[in-house]
Write a structure and sequence with these properties.
Helix content: 25-40%
Structural class: alpha/beta
Oligomer: single chain
Shape: globular
Largest sheet: 11 strands, mixed
Distance between the termini: 29 Å
Order of helices and strands: HHHEHEHHHEEEEHEHEEEHEEEHHEEEEH
């Protein structure tokens, strides 16, 4: 858990030998002392900028072919770097997912299992370990892990966040807690306001590289765009799924979940808020470029979970469907990425922490359950994981039961808390929208035992335990 220490062997060999060995290690998908940390040992360490948004779906980008929304600055990160198009969260809910990004652990390990369970101050974050590796650090934006008070976040030089609405914040006039002092912000739009503080931190004179965790409220429900975007996309067809027009019951289940207002009104403002995030990301990219630090900064953009806008007759997230669990994950860093474009490897939110530690030259602790994706950045042809565990824990009065699921490259098996909903099995290649439950078909019965066994193995390997309430 301390900073990475170069071994005698590393000190003794030449840089050419290091590069040669590291290239071979990357080709085999290995990490360790010849990962990116050693490659950068004799150079200036890169800055790190992680931008996390709320409820930003994987496909709500113009670079992903969305028919309406325009996101040129976010597209730039994806196009000039790597777009991991098969990225998922292990729990599709704000607080658990955010804790997983920070700790590299599943919710059942770090303990933030719902939006109502407290952050454990004993949890170790990648920010703490990166600070020990010689970085100036800041957490700016949405914390949203409940408790009586904000944590004393170890390893963070600046902590700017908000507690209004239970940590959810509001889009306009949201008070900020600036390094422990609650400060009114009248007349401020929160995405712009947080970006202003991010730019102040980035622009400070320093001898060390920086690591900035910029965590936006957008694009969470409320969906209030800035004034100059309130009529954006006004007359455009939103291409919503046909299920979005009515409130319907879940296929094969009995619960009824709908949007609070007509979906077209919600979704149009959602896209406007997404566009406002893109505008502010453009400001950050422009400043890094002006400073000459753009190519020396690892930039990662992600969402904390997806969102359902009518698919399966549902609104919100939590469920194990693709629209809910799939997230954007773009990374730009030309000094490491050898080939830009989309990647097919399956990666998870728990992979962020070990990846950033790897890049920063810090040791990856054994308690992190994710894996560094640095080898995939170097070699697009490497195989990634072939399956992962998804989990959701119930909390009253939200009418969604406990869920465990295994998602492979070709199938998804969803097991619901006993006595609640009917289990589901989908062929993701033949049925990407997950509309046909194969549980009682011959095709489903043929693959079900293998998927059930894989789910149980994943639960055992990750130390899964069930929580009835957060």
């Amino acid at each position: 858990m301390t900073g990475h220490k170069r071994s005698f062997f590393e000190e003794s060999i030449t840089r050419r030998q290091v590069l040669k060995f590291a290239g071979a290690a990357a080709a085999m998908g290995l990490a360790g002392p010849f990962s990116s940390a050693s490659l950068f040992a004799e150079e200036k360490k890169p800055n790190i900028l992680f931008i996390l948004t709320d409820d930003h779906r994987y496909d709500a980008f113009s670079c992903m072919g969305h028919p309406v929304v325009k996101t040129p600055h976010l597209d730039r990160i994806a196009n000039e770097g790597v777009n991991f198009a098969n990225t998922f969260v292990t729990t599709a809910l704000c607080s658990p997912s955010r804790a997983s990004f920070l700790t590299g652990q599943y919710a059942h390990t770090h303990g933030v299992v719902t939006n109502h369970t407290m952050w454990n101050d004993n949890n170790v974050t990648f920010m703490e370990l990166i600070k020990k590796a010689g970085y100036n650090t800041a957490f700016i934006g949405k914390w949203h892990m409940p408790g009586d008070k904000l944590p004393r976040l170890r390893g963070v030089d600046e902590f700017i966040t908000f507690t209004k609405e239970g940590g959810q914040g509001v889009y306009y006039d949201c008070p900020l807690v600036i390094n422990g002092v609650e400060t009114p912000r009248p007349g401020k739009y929160i995405t712009n306001d947080l970006t202003d503080f991010a730019l102040q931190f980035i622009g400070k004179k320093r001898n060390n590289p920086f690591c900035l965790y910029l965590s936006h409220k957008a694009a969470h429900f409320g969906f209030r765009p800035p004034e100059h975007m309130k009529t954006l996309y006004q007359d455009q067809d939103l291409h919503l799924p046909p299920e979005s027009d009515t409130w319907v019951t879940l296929t094969n289940n009995s619960i009824f979940v709908g949007a609070p207002i007509p979906m077209n009104l919600l979704y149009r403002n959602y896209l406007r808020v997404v566009t406002s995030v893109d505008e502010q990301v453009g400001r950050v990219l422009a400043e890094l470029e002006r400073m000459g630090e753009l190519d020396n900064t690892v930039i990662i953009y992600a969402g904390d979970n997806g969102h359902l806008f009518g698919e399966h007759g549902l609104y919100d997230k939590r469920n194990a469907y693709e629209e809910s669990i799939r997230i954007p994950f773009f990374i730009r860093y030309p000094k490491l990425i050898r080939q830009t474009g989309k990647r097919d490897q399956m990666i998870l939110n728990i992979d962020l922490a070990p990846t950033l530690l790897d890049i920063a030259g810090a040791q990856i602790p054994s308690f992190m359950q994710g894996k560094s994706i640095v080898p995939y950045l170097k070699s697009p042809i490497l195989e990634g994981r072939d399956a992962f565990l998804y989990e959701h824990f119930p909390v009253f009065p939200i009418p969604i039961p406990g869920i465990t699921a295994v998602r492979t490259k070709g199938y998804k098996y969803i097991a619901y808390q006993k006595g609640t909903w009917k289990n589901q099995l989908f062929d993701l290649k033949a049925d990407p929208r997950e509309l046909r439950n194969l549980m009682n078909t011959d095709a489903g019965k043929a693959v079900l035992p293998g998927l059930q066994a894989r789910l149980e193995k994943l639960k055992k390997d990750t130390g899964y335990r069930f929580f009835t309430h957060g």
